[in-house]
Amino acid sequence: MLRRCHLLLGGSRPPKSLPYPRWHSLKHLLSIRAAVSHAAADPCSLTLHFLRNSCGLSEPAATKAAARVHLRSTKKAHAVLALLRGLGLAGSDIARVVAAAPDLLNYRADVTLAPKIDFFRRDVGLSDADIRRILLLDPYRVLCYSLANRLRPNYLLLKDLLGTDQNVVAAVKQSSEFLHGNVQSELLPKVKILREYGATDDVIIKLLTKHPRSLNHKYGGSLFNDTFAAIKELGVSPSHGIFPHAFGVLARMYPSGWKRKMDNYLSLGWTEEQVKQAFVRHPYCISVSADKVRLIWQFFADKLGWTPEYVSASPMLISLSYEKRILPRYRVLHILVSKGHIRSIRIAHLILGEKKFVDKYVTNYLETIPQLMEAYRAGTDSAVTAK
After folding, report:
1. pTM of the predicted structure, to 2 decimals
2. What is the Cα gyration radius of the chain?
3. Is it the case that residue 11 has pLDDT exceeding 50?
4. Which of 254, 279, 306 is the last residue of a domain?
């Protein structure tokens, strides 16, 4: 039979004994069987074909991924893709996940992967959008790490630290490291050090939910120790509500970033003590870009005659929007000063809540100074002119 088929396929035209449609069908069937047989004998070919055509990987990405996974069947792989689509992933997102963790294609979706998705949803309390986000950040660790030995134990430790499901969700959404990192050996010792220093539970919770990267293991023990030493030198009280913000901001930039920020302020006439004082009162003033600090400070110094000593006592001014807050209010207040309604422009005018400012300094004077609203709402072009 095989010899006959070979002869049939090797001939230049079908024999007269077989009608053309039947001959065409037989030839097509034999070609499919040959392709399947070849793919089974060559898993690499099947793998590359699946990576390109079912997962959407480019040729170079598929070649690279194929070096890490070999498919002898696509049954498991198709089930994995179905699970990812069920999460709302499609197209380039699926390609991104598979390229980062091609091993997933050989996992049993129903036994290994689905329980992890259910865990993220039901135990941790993440939405599908949250799961998609953390999965795309680190596909391998999120889906390949053991549920029993890593993900669930970390979750239980985290819940013990944070107390409520809401806090756990907030922390995990900020950093999925808390789920797949080594919480026992990396996070808990740092928390112990902070508690011994006097950090309250509220401070620890705020650190983990607002500035988790200052504590997770990617930053290493040395950076934590350097940040901890710096925060103690600055004299920030561990029980004060500002502590987690100061620690979080400092951890992101210490030590080289801190020096650059400090040098920028010093170049504007501030003293080192004034910069430290400002940081302790409002840590985010040190994370403002150097260009914005220079722009705002020059405006305060040139237009308002304010000194570093005066501004460092209320450093939140540095974080205000120059175009949306400082300039519009300056235009209004400048008019009021020129007409004698107020004596001078003070810090309180700039940090006052939006509604209160409009009611007190715009609406209150519209009858006598109708141009105030126009001055307040003027666009950026007018703002540049007003400088």
Report:
1. 0.75
2. 32
3. no
4. 254
